[in-house]
């Protein structure tokens, strides 16, 4: 099997809640992102937009998630994204209220996250999740 010499191997961590997360930097600020193949879009907690220096880009819209309720969301501008030690370029995140997600994680003795790396990023970057070695390969 031929391997892509320029591929990036990002170390992942399996949390107490059995989710995969990666250390990252968004616009130079440290963040913890949950890897979620079922999330259509990558997102950042709306409450942290100033922390990550993200400006809104467009009008608010209603987004649906794993729950039955719709939440207010707004697209953020293109951000500089580093996953692990690898610069992966620019990526736009949807800004939305993630408090219910973090509440659930903490109720299950997990740690809160800053955002979600969703299918938009994973598909665009032809990501491969290696569960055995806990890595994300781009």
What is the CATH domain class of the domain at 33-125? Mainly Beta
In which range does the helix fraction lie? 10-25%
Q: What's the number of extended β-strand segments?
A: 11
- Report the CATH superfamily of the domain at 33-125: Acid Proteases
User: Spans with pLDDT under 50 lasting ≥5 residues?
Assistant: 1-5
Global morphology:
globular
The largest pleated sheet is described as:
6 strands, mixed, barrel
Q: Fill in the CATH topology of the domain at 33-125.
A: Cathepsin D, subunit A, domain 1
Q: What does the model show?
A:
By secondary structure, this protein is mostly beta strands. The protein has a domain at 33-125: Cathepsin D, subunit A, domain 1. 11% of the residues lie in helices and 43% in strands. Strands 3-4-9-5-8-7 form a six-stranded mixed β-barrel. The longest helix has 9 residues, at 99-107. The protein is globular.
Quick recap of the structure?
With 138 residues, the chain is mainly β. It is built from two helices and eleven strands.
Question: What brief labels describe this structure?
Answer:
Cathepsin D, subunit A, domain 1, three-stranded antiparallel β-sheet, 2 helices, 11% helix
Secondary structure topology:
Layout: E1 9-11, E2 13-14, E3 20-26, E4 29-35, E5 43-45, E6 61-64, E7 70-83, E8 86-96, H1 99-107, E9 115-117, H2 119-124, E10 128-130, E11 135-137
Parallel strand pairs: 4-9, 5-8
Antiparallel strand pairs: 1-11, 2-3, 3-4, 3-7, 5-9, 6-7, 7-8, 10-11
